[in-house]
Write a structure and sequence with these properties.
The protein is α/β, with parallel strands linked by helices. Helix content is about 30%, strand content about 20%. α1 (about 45-60) crosses α5 (about 120-130).
């Protein structure tokens, strides 16, 4: 069942690729972009990880936390999506229980649709992962913008394997929820 705003984000206890516990959902005090990815070798997913890495600094200065969840083992994620250090949290969920909790679907047809209609992105991603990117699962992607109190502000369920939330929407959310200094406090002088 798909989640709709302003539903509270389901709370889950997961593990990142380094084996550290990570809690998602609930009130964190920080706005969050929660991204659900398919497989660690997915060319569309790896290209999006590349884009998130390049935009991270600007989004992080606005106080946005980014969490990437893969339906894959830590070893597979380290081989592909996290073979280079990422500035945000990358979670391994090989059983895809978090995907199920957030109502993310599987579809072979929508995977094939992305392969047929998103050729430039497919090739960019294949340059990152090689031919291993042609053998992936059928999970679909999804992105959630979650406010400081744990409410889903926007839910983006991919219409195909390469459909992600537009960065313009993410940047607008980050700007709206940017952490500002408490009222009445003036910056300290030099």
């Amino acid at each position: 069942m798909r989640l709709k705003p302003p539903t509270m984000a389901p709370q889950l206890a997961l593990t990142d690729v380094e084996g550290k516990p990570v809690a998602i959902g609930g009130a964190t005090g920080r706005p969050t972009l929660l991204c659900f990815f398919r497989d660690a070798s997915c060319p569309f997913c790896n290209f999006r990880i590349y884009e998130l890495t390049n935009r991270y600094e600007r989004l992080a200065t606005q106080g946005l936390e980014i969490i990437a969840v893969f339906g894959a083992t830590p070893q597979r994620i380290k081989r592909f999506a996290a073979r280079k250090p990422r500035p945000f949290t990358v979670i391994a969920d090989p059983a895809a229980t978090s995907h199920d909790a957030y109502g993310i679907q599987r579809s072979l047809w929508r995977k094939l649709k992305a392969i047929a209609t998103r050729v430039p992105t497919l090739f960019r991603g294949l340059r990152i992962v090689g031919v291993a990117g042609l053998n992936t699962n059928n999970l679909l992607p999804a992105d959630f913008l979650i406010d400081e109190k744990g409410r889903i502000v926007h839910a983006w369920y991919g219409r195909d394997a390469g459909d992600r939330i537009p960065f313009e929407l993410v940047e607008s959310f980050a700007a709206t929820h940017e952490r500002k200094p408490p009222a009445g406090r003036l910056p300290l002088g030099p």
